């Protein structure tokens, strides 16, 4: 039987604010356990929440990038449940009035565009982190209260590849916005996938399973591919899929059952009484929306149309925000756009890979790389010399200085060159004869002699031109 | 003992040590203190020019005090020592006040008798067999007994204004948002107010200037500027427009209380105030108590979900985190609290919210609308704070569904539903026991409220009335 796959994705994303969603304690990653907490994060009696304005700003940015309608009245609700990682015994979230509704993300799979609708985006706070050891449970409250946005898609995704493309598109947009680190492996972006399948043509949905613990985009695809096959097999064998939460097991590349869903948990949602509804200043919202950075899709299009780059090159450059920003910065100092793109995608990337450093630790000053490109283009040094100079630029050096130190600078002084050429011609009467007899090879030989005399610094193109000119004079 | 304002003119060390000694002397009789606070350090470095310079004060035990155990009179908070000060503690200390004790209360402020305190009932200074009222019963008893001239309470239903009536002192609940609640262990966030007790209206005016004002840690606190309230307290009743809340007067059965109230009102009229009657919708008045219970218990069950034995307070050993929570909560809470949590949880169930929690919110809005209309064109609405004197400790709860109970004993919750300022001052005695008069005014009109109350205080002469406990 042919099946249609129905996938919906919920993404939790930690916002990169300095302080927490409802407290002034610093947010942290990798800090000493329980060092970034105050009485609010610990849920001490008498504490009250205070909304982080930057978190709201970031949420508005994300809403804008995802084309969501923004609710100008921000409200929060309590989600009540007891768990040892939830200090207050409730989580403050936006159940009834999410800040963003009804948007979309365009993805591209196999060269085709597809629109995935986004149902909602809401703000909430993260829980503490638990570590279960043999001697008991350890709780680190550093993460408790970290601002989160949850983005819920409509069930518009049809296969693992689309799911991966959707998550990648979101990841990249949120990263470009600068609102989150979006590191799936570190948990600053977490992805829950709901999967069900139904016979082609069936209108109603079948039972879905939820897959958690997906710590990379490729695992999203692998988990879905496996889960779809698993569900198919169940139906083919006349069984029924049960509603449950499953976990992706990296080693076996399968999904395994975590817990059955026994009916829906009643979270007893009700409006948070300590936060009055906040009326957003529409001018403030507008200002935020106007200031959001260019999204990768738009930027790629601009590279193709405005800079005349190939689609491939444009794609490579926008893949990572830092790379494309480095490119933009280089363009501030040079007008040789294509050359800059080639160098960044080629020599620069190769050097980065070789050195093993990440783009955030990029040792090359954009201005220096641009200078190097300009020097090559202006024939101050040869392309070959350029590669040699780049090795030093990669160590953070100024190419002008490198060229000077190495005495590399091409000699483009016509007078000086002529002097050497005259000397060489005087020494090589045979070559003049050869040239007169129509042997053009002689020019190459003579250029080589001049280069030797100049210790490689003669501008080859100029030397060539001048030799031809002098030869013509001599043979009259 | 003297009022706060008088006390500030005399020897601070002597005042504080006398207050502390008196608190210790009467502790066996009143049982009003949960924790005594050593004032030595505070005395070394207090603001001598503050509005409450050197005044010994008491805090209700739901006010978080850094380094000083704070239990809210609940077993589950045994041993809980806060790592931070409530906003008002910082405010009071900035103005020179000296904390000498944390006072007993109904467990987690849920109750009106102070009989549910983990440390046992508080006794009324006027009759040790009687309650001081609740939930701020310890603070009320200590002010009435002349231990301190000022004490903090909190008021969710009438938890400051009712004990003030039973103990013959002044009890103030200002406008919602006037005083920051940051650091006050909550009961019901939308109804909770910081309140306080004094023995004079003028002291009350000074105290509000100290306590009021925006605090960024409490988003519900108001940006409304804080005036110099004492300037407005003249006590001139001429031209004040007042009304008597007829619903309450009509159902009070105690004739002596009514007589006393009517006498005061007559005198108020004589002083030139206009006094009429207002009547609120009777059904809404009778709906106040169930509406209150639902909202308060629903919010309380969530507010107290943090008391799980994991991070602070009582922790029972068990195999898993979940079992620790269950064991700690089972042992730590009193039975009345558990009952309220069950009611609150029930009201919040998804299938019940429409007919219970959300309905209660709607009724609350109707009641507030009714009060707002009644107050239109008036300076304030007057009523006896209670239809009775302080009940005996051994008395069981009264008939919860009688009109006199539903309306006369619960009308002050109007001030919590609406957030409007409301206060009780003594108006006389019945059988040697104090009775109080309550007023409710427009939001942020506390200055005017104090002015009216000062006028009434001048009529009754009940300023700085102390009941020595021997």
What's the gyration radius of chain B in Å? 21 Å
Distance between the termini of chain A: 89 Å
State the oligomer: heterodimer
- What's the total helix number of chain B? 17
How many beta-strand elements of chain A?
Answer: 16
Largest sheet of chain B: 11 strands, mixed
Helix coverage percent of chain B: 25-40%
Order of helices and strands of chain B: HHEHEHEEEHEHEEHEHHEHHHHHEHHEEH
Number of domains of chain A: 3
Overall pLDDT level of chain A: 92
Strand content of chain B: 15-25%
Poorly predicted spans of chain B: none
Q: Percent of residues of chain A in beta strands?
A: 15-25%
The largest β sheet of chain A comes out as: 9 strands, mixed
Structural key phrases:
heterodimer, A: 476 residues, alpha+beta, Arc Repressor Mutant, subunit A, 3 domains, 9-stranded mixed beta sheet, 3-stranded antiparallel beta sheet, 15 helices, 16 strands, 40% helix, B: 470 residues, alpha/beta, two-stranded antiparallel ribbon, 17 helices, 13 strands, globular
Give the secondary structure arrangement, pairings included.
The complex is a heterodimer of chains A (476) and B (470).
Chain A: E1 3-14, H1 53-65, E2 69-70, E3 73-74, E4 77-80, E5 90-93, E6 100-109, E7 112-125, E8 129-133, E9 136-140, E10 147-153, H2 160-177, E11 189-199, E12 209-212, H3 217-236, E13 244-249, E14 254-260, E15 270-271, E16 278-279, H4 282-290, H5 296-305, H6 311-319, H7 321-331, H8 337-355, H9 366-377, H10 383-393, H11 399-406, H12 414-427, H13 429-436, H14 441-453, H15 460-475
Chain B: H1 4-7, H2 12-30, E1 33-36, H3 40-44, E2 56-60, H4 87-94, E3 98-103, E4 123-124, E5 127-131, H5 137-144, E6 150-155, H6 161-167, E7 170-173, E8 193-198, H7 201-211, E9 241-245, H8 246-251, H9 255-270, E10 274-278, H10 282-303, H11 321-332, H12 335-348, H13 350-353, H14 357-375, E11 380-384, H15 403-408, H16 414-418, E12 422-430, E13 433-441, H17 446-460
Parallel strand pairs in B: 2-3, 2-6, 9-10, 9-11
Antiparallel strand pairs in B: 1-3, 4-5, 6-8, 7-8, 7-12, 11-13, 12-13
């Amino acid at each position: 039987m042919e099946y249609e796959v129905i996938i919906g994705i919920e993404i939790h994303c930690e916002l990169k604010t300095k302080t927490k969603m409802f407290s002034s304690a610093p947010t942290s990653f990798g800090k000493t356990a329980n060092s970034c907490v105050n009485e609010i994060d610990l849920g001490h009696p008498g504490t009250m929440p205070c909304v982080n304005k930057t978190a709201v700003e970031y949420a508005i940015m994300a809403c804008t990038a995802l084309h969501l309608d923004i609710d100008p009245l921000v409200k929060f609700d309590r989600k009540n449940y007891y768990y040892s990682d939830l200090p207050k015994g409730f989580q403050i979230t936006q159940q009834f009035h999410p800040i963003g509704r009804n948007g979309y993300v365009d993805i591209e799979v196999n060269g085709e565009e597809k629109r995935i609708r986004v149902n909602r985006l809401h703000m909430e706070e993260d829980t503490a982190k638990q570590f279960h050891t043999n001697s008991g449970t350890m709780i680190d409250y550093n993460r408790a209260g970290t601002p989160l946005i949850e983005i819920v898609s409509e069930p518009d995704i049809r296969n693992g590849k689309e799911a991966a493309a959707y998550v990648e598109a979101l990841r990249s947009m949120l990263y470009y916005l600068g609102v989150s680190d979006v590191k799936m492996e570190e948990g600053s972006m977490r992805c829950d996938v709901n999967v069900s399948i139904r016979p082609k043509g069936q209108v109603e949905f079948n039972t879905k399973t939820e897959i958690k613990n997906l710590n990379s985009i490729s695992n999203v695809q692998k988990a879905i591919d496996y889960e779809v096959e698993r569900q198919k097999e169940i139906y083919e064998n006349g069984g029924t899929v049960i509603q449950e939460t499953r976990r992706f097991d990296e080693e076996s590349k399968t999904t395994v059952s975590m817990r059955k869903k026994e009916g829906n948990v009643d979270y007893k949602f009700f409006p948070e009484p300590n936060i009055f509804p906040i009326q957003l200043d529409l001018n403030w919202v507008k200002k935020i929306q106007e200031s959001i950075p260019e999204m990768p899709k738009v930027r790629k299009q601009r590279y193709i149309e405005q800079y005349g780059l190939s689609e491939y090159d444009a794609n490579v450059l926008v893949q990572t925000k830092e790379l494309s920003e480095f490119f933009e910065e280089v363009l501030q100092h040079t007008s040789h756009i294509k050359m800059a793109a080639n160098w960044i995608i080629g020599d620069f990337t190769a050097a980065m890979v070789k050195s093993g450093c990440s783009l955030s630790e990029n040792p090359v000053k954009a201005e220096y790389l641009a200078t190097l490109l300009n020097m090559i283009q202006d024939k101050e040094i040869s392309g070959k010399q350029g590669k040699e100079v780049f090795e030093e630029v990669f160590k953070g050096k100024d190419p002008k200085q490198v060229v000077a130190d190495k005495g590399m600078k091409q000699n483009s002084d016509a007078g000086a060159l002529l002097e050497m050429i005259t000397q060489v011609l005087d020494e090589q009467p045979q070559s003049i004869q050869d040239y007169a007899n129509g042997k053009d090879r002689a020019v190459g030989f003579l250029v080589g002699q001049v280069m030797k005399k100049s210790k490689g610094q003669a501008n080859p193109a100029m030397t060539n031109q001048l030799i031809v000119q002098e030869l013509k004079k001599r043979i009259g | 003992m003297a009022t706060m304002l008088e006390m500030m003119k005399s020897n601070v060390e002597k005042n504080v040590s006398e207050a502390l000694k008196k608190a210790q002397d009467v502790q066996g009789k009143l049982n009003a203190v949960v924790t005594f606070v050593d004032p030595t350090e505070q005395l070394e470095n207090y603001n001598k020019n503050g509005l409450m310079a050197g005044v010994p004060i008491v805090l209700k035990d739901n006010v978080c005090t850094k380094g000083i155990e704070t239990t809210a009179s609940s077993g589950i908070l045994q041993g809980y020592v806060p790592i931070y000060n409530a906003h008002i503690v910082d405010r009071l200390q900035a103005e020179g006040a000296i904390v000498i004790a944390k006072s007993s209360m109904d467990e987690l402020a849920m109750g009106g008798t102070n009989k549910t305190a983990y440390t046992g009932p508080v006794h009324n200074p006027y009759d040790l067999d009687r309650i001081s009222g609740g939930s701020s019963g310890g603070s009320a008893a200590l002010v009435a007994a002349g231990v301190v001239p000022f004490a903090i309470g909190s008021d969710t239903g009438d938890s400051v204004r009712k004990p003030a009536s039973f103990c013959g002192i002044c009890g103030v609940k200002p406008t919602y948002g006037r005083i920051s609640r940051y650091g006050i262990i909550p009961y019901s966030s939308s109804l909770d107010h910081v309140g306080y007790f004094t023995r004079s209206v003028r002291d009350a005016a000074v105290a509000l200037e100290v306590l009021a004002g925006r605090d960024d840690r409490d988003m519900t606190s108001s940006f409304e500027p804080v005036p110099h309230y004492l300037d407005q307290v003249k006590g001139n009743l001429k031209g004040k427009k007042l009304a008597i809340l007829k619903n309450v007067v009509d159902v009070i059965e105690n004739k002596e209380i009514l007589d006393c109230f009517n006498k005061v009102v007559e005198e108020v009229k004589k002083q030139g105030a206009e006094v009429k009657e207002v009547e609120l919708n009777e059904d809404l008045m009778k709906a106040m108590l169930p509406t209150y219970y639902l909202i308060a218990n629903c919010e309380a069950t969530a507010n107290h979900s943090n008391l799980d034995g994991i991070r602070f307070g009582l922790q029972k050993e068990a195999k898993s985190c979940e079992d620790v929570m269950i064991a700690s909560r089972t042992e730590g809470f009193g039975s009345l609290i558990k009952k309220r949590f069950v009611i609150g949880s029930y009201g919040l169930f998804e299938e019940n919210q429409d007919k219970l929690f959300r309905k209660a919110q709607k009724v609350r809005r109707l009641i507030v609308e009714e009060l707002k209309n009644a107050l239109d064109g008036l300076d304030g609405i007057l009523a006896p704070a209670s239809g009775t004197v302080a009940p005996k400790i051994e008395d069981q709860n009264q008939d919860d569904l009688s009109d006199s109970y539903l309306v006369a004993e619960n009308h002050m919750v109007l001030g919590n539903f609406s957030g409007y300022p409301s206060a009780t001052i003594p108006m006389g005695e019945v059988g040697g026991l104090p009775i109080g008069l309550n007023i409710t005014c427009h939001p942020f009109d506390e200055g005017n409220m104090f002015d009216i109350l000062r006028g009434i205080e001048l009529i009754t002469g009940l300023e700085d009335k102390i009941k020595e406990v021997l």
